TrEMBL record:
It comes from the Bacteria. PANTHER family: ATP-DEPENDENT RNA HELICASE RHLE, ATP-DEPENDENT RNA HELICASE RHLE-RELATED. It is an enzyme of class 3 (hydrolase). Residues 376-464 are annotated as: Disordered. One of its GO terms (biological process) is ribosome assembly. A motif (Q motif) lies at residues 1-29. Residues 397-410, 418-428, 435-449 have a biased composition (Gly residues). The keyword Cell wall biogenesis/degradation does not apply. This is ATP-dependent RNA helicase RhlE. Residues 239-386 form the Helicase C-terminal domain. Residues 32-213 form the Helicase ATP-binding domain.
Length: 464
């Protein structure tokens, strides 16, 4: 099947051809006709499957060919926000809006992206000029709604991208507030890597007789990714990683740590070994994160060290190596992590450095993916067979946050389970302020995750 068979306009086909893509991915083959049909959609697709183009292309087509849209996008008429795309993180929001601009370059539609960690005033100015398609993170969008600097009354299409991650980050309350500001008659598109009970509950309340598509087995890992476990003592992980990078001459490696502090410490250690590395996490400024991502994508940076939520939205073609320096305590995060390699038909390798403390985590991961991962002991790094497990430090900040504090708790609740939320710290400011930094929308640093049904917090300000 080719893109030309999907019924896209000449303007969109021209933009697609300029990107070099000729054959749609499975999610695009199914999602594009479903969205063009005008109905609601529930789509199961992991990152790296081409889902962004799966909703941006038909969204652009519907808005640019609609009779009402033609009037709204004429030079003499004010623009109203007609499509709203919500994403869990800043990086993903920026990436999605870039896709909208690339694919929509030959239409008359324009777009904007708003997220926290940067000043709000330039965003207010841009919104005043009029925007057709708005990409936003929930926290910053609510700031604009509170200040009445955004008008969502004309939204025709709503997209919730990576809805599972938004729920994991405690955004359900914010999403409901955003939904309350939208017109009841609209097209709703929900994309999620997994179909958990929480996602199904959200879909039941949001979608009207949706088409349902799922392009990967539930919670499956990509078969073309070579996965292996290197058993190692906890204090030998850093020298083992440096050994692997140098021995195999890895030129582009994405490394996951459990905490922000761990990410910073590892970068310092790798730099002493002569290995270029930078970290991205919630305590880094937006400019620092953008710089690190850009250099990594351009192959100017050898190692990018990331926490789970900060890495959301990293989309790099043919990323060869992902390393789990620390195993995630949420098994589904393992699937998200390794899914960043082995994309677009390329092969990839996912390596996990596992110490005795993480054996239970490894069991949970193998149970989820329904396979036993091969173990390979590296000579010189044989683990001590008498070593005993120690409790894992699941956070580097306030209580209840797996990945650190500095988070924004409106009303702290009991953690869902030990280790609590998916928080990732940083970036939150009081409503009256904007920019980078600690603080929360209404006090409190890094509290625990309330149960999902009544989640009260914004996890670590990542949506700001």
């Amino acid at each position: 099947m080719s893109f030309s068979s999907l019924g896209l306009s000449d303007a969109l086909m021209r933009a697609v051809s300029e990107t070099g893509y000729t054959t749609p991915t499975p999610i695009q083959q199914q999602a594009i006709p479903a969205v063009l049909n005008g109905g609601d959609l529930l789509a199961g697709a992991q990152t790296g499957t081409g889902k962004t183009a799966g909703f941006t292309l038909p969204l652009l087509q519907r808005l640019s060919t609609d009779a009402v849209g033609a009037k709204l996008t004429s030079n003499n008429s004010p623009r109203a926000i007609r499509a709203l795309i919500l994403t869990p993180t800043r990086e993903l929001a920026a990436q999605v809006e870039e896709s909208v601009r690339i694919y929509g370059k030959y239409t008359k539609l324009n777009s904007a992206v708003i997220f926290g960690g940067v000043g709000i005033n330039p965003q207010i100015k841009q919104l005043k000029h009029g925007v057709d398609i708005l990409v936003a993170t929930p926290g910053r969008l609510l700031d604009h709604m509170d200040q009445r600097t955004v008008d969502l009354s004309k939204v025709e299409i709503l997209v919730l991208d990576e809805a599972d991650r938004m729920l994991d980050m405690g955004f359900i309350r914010d999403i409901r507030k955003v939904l309350a500001g939208l017109p009841p008659k609209r097209q709703n598109l929900l994309f999620s890597a997994t179909f958990s009970d929480d996602i199904k509950a959200l879909a039941d309340g949001l979608l009207n007789k949706p088409a349902t598509i799922e392009v990967a087995r539930r919670n499956s890992t990509v078969e073309i990714i070579a996965q292996k476990i290197h058993p190692v003592d906890r204090d030998k992980k850093h020298p083992m990683l440096a050994h692997l990078i140098k021995t195999h001459q890895w030129s582009q490696v994405l490394v996951f740590t459990r905490t922000k502090h761990g990410a910073n410490k590892l970068v310092e250690q790798l730099e002493k070994d002569g290995i270029g590395a930078m970290a991205i996490h919630g305590n880094k400024s937006q400019s620092a994160r953008t710089k690190a991502l850009s250099e990594f994508k351009d192959n100017k940076l050898q190692v990018l060290v990331a926490t789970d939520i900060a890495a959301r939205g990293i989309d790099i073609d043919q990323l060869p190596h992902v390393v789990n320096y620390d195993l995630p305590n949420v098994p589904e995060d393992y699937v998200h992590r390794i899914g960043r390699t082995g994309r677009a038909g390329a092969t990839g390798e996912a390596v996990s450095l596992v110490c005795v403390d993480e054996h239970d985590m490894l069991k949970d991961i193998e149970k989820l993916i329904k396979q036993t991962l091969p173990r390979e002991v590296i000579p010189g790094f044989e683990p001590d067979p008498t070593a005993r497990a120690q409790p894992i430090q699941l956070r580097s900040g306030g209580p209840g946050h797996r990945n650190g504090g500095g988070g924004g708790n409106r009303n702290s609740g009991a953690p869902r389970k030990p280790g609590g939320g998916n928080g990732n710290g940083g970036g939150n400011k009081p409503r009256s302020a904007s920019g980078n930094g600690g603080g929360a929308r209404s006090g409190g640093g890094g509290g625990g995750n309330a149960p999902r049904a009544a989640a009260q917090h914004r996890s670590g300000g990542r949506g700001r």
